[in-house]
Amino acid sequence: MTGLAVVVGVLLAATAFGWWHRRRDGRIRSVAPTPTAAAAATLVGLGLTPGAPTLLQFSSAVCAPCRATRRVLERVSATVDGVRLLEVEAEQQLAAARELGVWRTPTVLLVDGEGRVARRVSGVPDLGELVAAVRELTAGANR
């Protein structure tokens, strides 16, 4: 009977984790747009130039969702004018990934025109949600 209780407990825990992961994966989350000086320097070091909103993707060579994310980002840049794309190989930029709190690939940081991280997505983002978030950033940049 104890073995059955353990199996049921493990199944419940796995189901709860799967539900949590599925609800969180690919969702756009707001970030407090107050970077540290080190984070701002890290973004500039990665090639980010202030002026227009940028979609900064951290990816890796063996990551299949990274390729899907790249296609979504390319569609967003084709849909919304004035958006830059920047892709970084996470394995080659480990210090930058750690500084910016990137723990998995793909992770996309939505950086506003002033060079501050405004939102982030871990996993493949939803095209419609990402377009809406980028349009919000570009509207803020045009004010």
TrEMBL record:
Entries under PROSITE patterns matching the protein: THIOREDOXIN_2 (PS51352)
Domain Thioredoxin, chain residue ranges per copy: 32-139
Domain of life: Bacteria
Protein name, entry field: Thioredoxin
